[in-house]
Design goal:
alpha/beta, 4-stranded parallel beta sheet, single chain, 3-stranded mixed beta sheet, elongated, 6 helices, 10 strands
């Protein structure tokens, strides 16, 4: 039986067979054949929490077992990046890292994102100003929640509507309105990291999502999908 050499903590991953920690509450999370059809070896995967007060030594292996193991500690995000770049190629390590990521054992924090809130503005309103205002207020409420989650939200309407008024638009959908409303939001995407699609049907919002995908931006459909900051 082989146990992966990676033990997980809330902040780091300690890479060594003898970790230098006395751990308890070890949990088995699975087992797998690495090369079924070629070898019968089966690997058993375990995870356990540890803290500094569980330290028993420097780790690095047992001299009497002729072990010569280098101890390396990495931030979890760095380890995931090394999997993506190919620096980590060991299958059992990759599987355990992905297990920790999927199960949320280690909360990966990201830098704050600049997120465009894309939702219906005129759609379904028949250009009723009360209903349009209701749509905008809804997106503003979502934007506040995004802000409280640590990110920086933006609505295309925040940029477009003052510009449209200054440019002399006199009615929804007139030439001046159409020249600025959606084009300004498309331009705004160049300064965003992500789009959060909210609300009901909207061709304009769907267009924002389509363009954002072409630009390689992150797309979210729920607030709980946003990364931790």
């Amino acid at each position: 039986m082989e146990i992966s050499p990676y033990t997980f903590s809330s902040q780091t991953i300690t890479a060594c067979s003898t970790t230098g920690y006395r751990i308890d509450r070890v949990q088995k999370v699975g087992e797998a054949y690495m090369s079924p059809g070629s070898v019968t070896e089966i690997l058993h995967f375990y995870v356990a929490e540890y803290s500094e007060d569980m330290t028993t030594g420097g780790g690095g292996g047992l001299e009497e077992e002729q072990e010569n193991i280098e101890v390396i500690e990495l931030p979890f995000v760095r380890a995931l990046d090394m999997v993506e770049s190919g620096e980590i190629r060991d299958a059992k390590t990759i599987m355990l890292l992905q297990y920790a990521q999927i199960q949320g054992l280690l909360k990966v924090k990201s830098k704050p994102l600049h997120i465009l809130i894309a939702g219906p503005y005129r759609s379904g309103t028949n250009d009723d100003h009360v209903l349009i205002e209701k749509n905008v207020n809804y997106m503003n409420e979502i934007a506040l929640q995004v802000y409280e989650a640590g990110h920086m939200p933006v609505l295309g309407e925040w940029y477009a509507l003052p510009l449209i008024a200054t440019a002399g638009s006199t009615a929804l959908g007139d030439e001046t309105f159409n020249k600025i409303f959606h084009p300004s939001s498309i331009r705004l995407l160049d300064y965003c990291n992500a789009v959060l699609r909210v609300g009901g049907p909207s061709q304009g919002a769907d267009e924002m999502v389509r363009v954002a995908k072409e630009k390689g931006l992150l797309i979210y459909e729920r607030l709980d999908e946003l990364p931790l900051v």
